[in-house]
Amino acid sequence: MPLALRELRIHPVKSCRGISVLEWELDRFGLALDRAFMIVDAERGLFLTQREDPRLARIAPRIDGATLTLAAEGAGSIAIDLGQRDGLRTPIEVWRHRGEGVDQGPEAAAWLTALLGRPLRLVRIPPDHARLVSPERSPEPAYTAFSDGYPLLLLTRASLDDLNARLPAPLGVERFRPNLVIDGAEPYAEDAWRRIRFGSIELDVVKGCDRCAITTVDPATGERSGREPLRTLMRYRRRDGAVWFGQNAVHRGTGPLAVGMPVAVLTTQDAPGFDRVERPASDQL
What we know:
The chain has helices spanning 106-116, 157-166, 230-236, and strands spanning 4-10, 19-21, 23-27, 30-31, 37-41, 60-64, 67-72, 76-81, 89-94, 97-103, 120-124, 152-156, 180-183, 193-198, 201-210, 217-218, 223-224, 238-239, 242-251, 255-258, 263-268.
């Protein structure tokens, strides 16, 4: 089967639910609006994710024209004007990046604070945002919004199918928060990809994605659902003390992407090896 883009997913607010789209623009920072917003603590501006509070998975974004709506069951919703790109700046911190975010106002802050029970603010990347991807990973200067470190995350459907065949119960692709889901490959073929192309846009596949406790959060409930899929992944995808699933990528151009686009693999490399642990100890998870 020829390789093709099966699904496009954006996550407008870091660590909240994603949105599946049929076509979308790839801009300087990745898919437009992907991780363009972030929830931070009101005092320090430190980013908040499902690692610390899995209830973020309850927050469902929706984009209608120039409005981003955030909603959660039993908590109503809040509307954000996407046309208002700049405003009051506030210091923010996401991993090693320290910069500024555009505060989205007291109403958004009050809604998030009431929902999660702690003082929070919602911020957006400013127009002059210039957070660089690590030059050790990107062959050319590249930028990302409020992602963990890279503008794009890709996964093949075959890899997810293979993992699901090993799990007690299958998981949806949303559990792994990819931007690009590719069909037609063999399981884990993406481990060896070095450069691929969607139409005229090339991507460098720069680093495997080491998985954390966010994969154990049920995106429908915002609650941890046990040790899967990390427990199963540890049995056959462990290396250097971490488990790996999917690949981070950096794009070399901008333009539209659409579900169904053909995907070409331009260059490959030797895939990394993994340890196999048939019965991981519970204290390793």
